[in-house]
Amino acid sequence: MRQDRFLQGLVLGLCLLAVAAVVLVVNRAGSEVYFNQDTPEAVVHDYVLALQRGDLDRAYGYLAEGEGKPDWLTFRRWMSKGDLKRGEASVRVGEAEVKGDEASVQLTVFSTTSGPFFGEEIMQRSDEALLVRQDGEWRLSYMPFEFWGYDWYLNVLPPPIRKPQG
Questions:
Q1: Element holding 5 (H helix, E strand)
Q2: How confident is the model at residue 162 (pLDDT cuts 50, 70, 90)?
């Protein structure tokens, strides 16, 4: 009789722990919030968060004005393409280096890959976001390909280094 109560208590305790874990997971999901600050790091964070939430109007507002900026329809089409890896990618925003009206933000990009000869694998690489200050606000001019169109703002990337011929 005493063992039955012990077993019932143990099962009840495990059920309570499971319910608490589910509640924590559900509450944490979607708990990311916009920073709403005008720092390079906050702009990168808010842009990625807007993309993840499907708030394309907000995400588009973080793009720099100028040559190479996609129009709204091109941006929407690009972000709606099924082959984009945003859903399989996340980013850790690092520190910014600001030089006048330009900034670079160090990023660690995590992406999930899978293939016929290996299981699902999480890859990690270093990259950066580039921003320019326009009308007193930071705007994006480059992000890693998971969050960006390959042909946007091509003129902001440095020219390739060429070896002298001779």
A1: helix 2-28
A2: very low
Vertex 134 angle, CA 128 and 136, to 5°: 105
| CATH number attached to the domain at 12-145 | 3.10.450.50
Indicate if the pLDDT at residue 96 is higher than 70.
Answer: yes
Residue 125 near residue 108 (C-beta atoms within 8 A):
yes
Q: How far apart are CA 73 and CA 47, in angstroms?
A: 18
Q: What share of the chain is helix, strand, coil (3-state, %, to 5)?
A: 40, 30, 30
Query: How far is CA 100 from its chain centroid?
Result: 25
The 3-class secondary structure across 111-144, one letter per residue, is: EEEEECCEEEEEEEEEEEEEEEEECCEEEEEECC
d(CA 62, CA 84): 19
* Burial of 156: CB neighbours in 10 Å, binned 0-12, 13-18, 19+: middle
Whether this prediction's pTM lies above 0.85 is answered by no
Which residue type is seen at 46? D
